Amino acid sequence: MMKTATAPPAAPITSPTPPSANYLKSLGKDAPAGLVVFLVALPLCLGISLASGAPLLAGVITGIVGGVLVSWLSGSQLSVSGPAAGLTAIMLTAISTLGSFEAVLTATVVAGLIQLALGFMKAGIIGMYFPSSVIKGMLAAIGLILILKQIPHFLGADTDYFEDMNFLQFDGQNTFSAIVSASNAISWGSALIGVVSLIVLIIWESKPVKSVAALKLVPGALIVVVLSILMNLLFSSMAPDLQVRPEHLVKLPQISSFADLTRELSFPDWSALTRGSTYIVAFTIAIVASIETLLSVEAVDKLDPHKRHTPQNRELKAQGVGNIVAALLGGLPLTAVIVRSSANINSGGQTRMSAFIHGLLLLGSLLFLASVLNLIPLSALAAVLLMVGFKLTKPALFRTQWRLGWDQFLPFIVTVVAILFTDLLKGVAVGLAVGVFYILKANLESAYFFHNEPTHEPGVMHIKLSEHVSFLNKASIVTTFERLAPNTKVILDGTESEVIDYDVLEAIENFRLTAAERGIELELRGIPQVEVLGH
Q1: What is the chain's percent helix, strand, coil content, to nearest 5?
Q2: What is the pLDDT of residues 175-195, one digit of tens each?
Q3: Higher model confidence: residue 455 or residue 145?
Q4: Model confidence, pTM
Q5: What is the rounded distance in angstroms from the CA atom of residue 136 to the CA atom of residue 400?
Q6: Rounded CA gap, 380 and 154, in Å?
Q7: φ and ψ of 361, to 5 deg
Q8: Residue 416 half-sphere exposure toward CB, CA atoms < 13 A
């Protein structure tokens, strides 16, 4: 008897129709999503610059490069790249080690070259070896962190940078002590704007509003931003005590001329190439940025309603080019970022156009709209992130993982707790260790996952799974699916399998959902259907 989650027999192949390669066709959804991602990304870019000890403009430049350039180089349709909170500690240390931000820019150029090399060496395959339970734990943890970290900004009681994802903050607080401090220093104007913004966003997500076609074209985040500005202007004239303090508003550098822009930009110090410490910093940035990117695109693929698969090696190359260009322009290192990517997906983004539009909006805001955007209260943007966080960590996700059994739930919940109390990479490492324990325990029986059975029917491939199919086989299975030619009939036979790991079942289900659009006729035998994110 196969040991896996009970599920109904596989249904006939049906799959969501993916967006057309004609990006104009999906512009009606991508443009509003790009706007939402821009509103989320702008304060994060500025906050990460402050947290990294870098010039304020550096994070915005990286966000622009991630949107305008990397979105087209990447193979992912929904991933959004930009400066990452996970690199802030590395940047602070790097600036201290190398003596200047300009020297770190040189190290970032070298890091981009290393990522390019990793892409050409096909090192991206490591992304497939993160268990599904750990990736889902990472998503749930990020959702919880977004909620917990935005509460002080939501209450208008936090004056430090906008995004600090680690449990231990640079200001000496931790996640929970910052909330306690915030509750004792509430700015009532900011809090009122935050509450109203959250209520508007909840209403905007309701079925009555979504049923109105015209309203579906307007992102709730835009309504919230406009309303929050108007509320604060009203406070300034009618209730000055409620007016949002300047430190709780968006702070974008004012650029009124090309001379202003060049004065704000930093450029690499090439003399740093003569020092060995530059290459140590470069290697550190390259490895951490690559791991964060691979984790993020794996998570994005799980959230993608169309279940598209991101080529990991192409992603590493895209990130490498992005880091080279960003550093040459004075930007921070970039990665694929799950917070912005999940905001993109939750806002209805369909193709890479949404990330591209967000990059154009960042560029336009930098050049033309700083005075307007600097009127936006951070509490309104915190409300947007609270909604994003809730969608990532819905109670249904925890219930689903619990029903799958301890081998899926324990790595999931350990990952959640470990990320909450450390940081993203450490938490994933702890969750991965727990997941690997279960994998190795289950993998003792067999190391071989399938073989092709001979068939007398032309154009038919019969793939027979072995007695035990573990998570370690996932990468090979996905690669096999990707290499299948169109107009092929595939019989995937699990009738003799005692155990099929949930991660493999999930990969098979994703293939089942997309097989028809590739012209592949798929027949599943003895393989249960499982739930996947987005369905």
Answers
A1: 65, 5, 30
A2: 777 788 878 888 999 999 999
A3: 145
A4: 0.72
A5: 11
A6: 7
A7: -65, -40
A8: 19
pLDDT of 40 above 60: yes
Alpha-carbon span 165 to 110, nearest angstrom: 26
Mean pLDDT is highest, among 42-46, 100-104, 457-461, for 100-104
> What is residue 22's predicted lDDT score, i.e. its pLDDT?
67
How many whole angstroms from its chain centre is CA 16?
A: 22
The token pair at 423 is 């940081």
Provide CB contacts within 8 A for 181, sequence distance 6+: 152, 157, 173
CA atoms within 13 A on the CB side of 377: 36
Helix (H) or strand (E) holding 81: strand 81-83
Which of these, 375, 63, 125, lies nearest to 248 by C-alpha position?
375
Domains of the chain with bracketed CATH: 41-386 (no CATH), 450-525 (3.30.750.24)
Q: How many residues does the chain have?
A: 535
* Per-residue 3-state assignment (H helix, E strand, C coil) for 322-371: HHHHHHHCCCCCEEECHHHHHHHHHCCCCCCHHHHHHHHHHHHHHHHHHH
Contact yes or no for 64/367 (Cβ under 8 A): no
Burial 97-134 (b: 16+ CB within 10 A, else e): bbeebbbbbbbbbbbbbbbbebbeeebbeebbbbbbbb
pLDDT of amino acid 454: 61
Rounded to 5°, the CA angle 9-413-508 comes to: 30
Q: Are 190 and 246 contacting, i.e. CB atoms less than 8 angstroms apart?
A: no
The kind and range of the H/E element at 72 are helix 71-73
> For residues 30 and 45, what is the distance between their CA atoms, to the nearest angstrom?
21
Compute the distance between CA of residue 103 and CA of residue 472 in angstroms, rounded to an integer. 41
> Which two structure tokens, joined as six digits, stand for 49?
């610059």
Q: Does the pLDDT at position 287 exceed 60? A: yes
How far, in Å, CA of 379 to CA of 193, rounded?
7
To 10 degrees, what angle do helices 101-120 and 88-98 make?
120
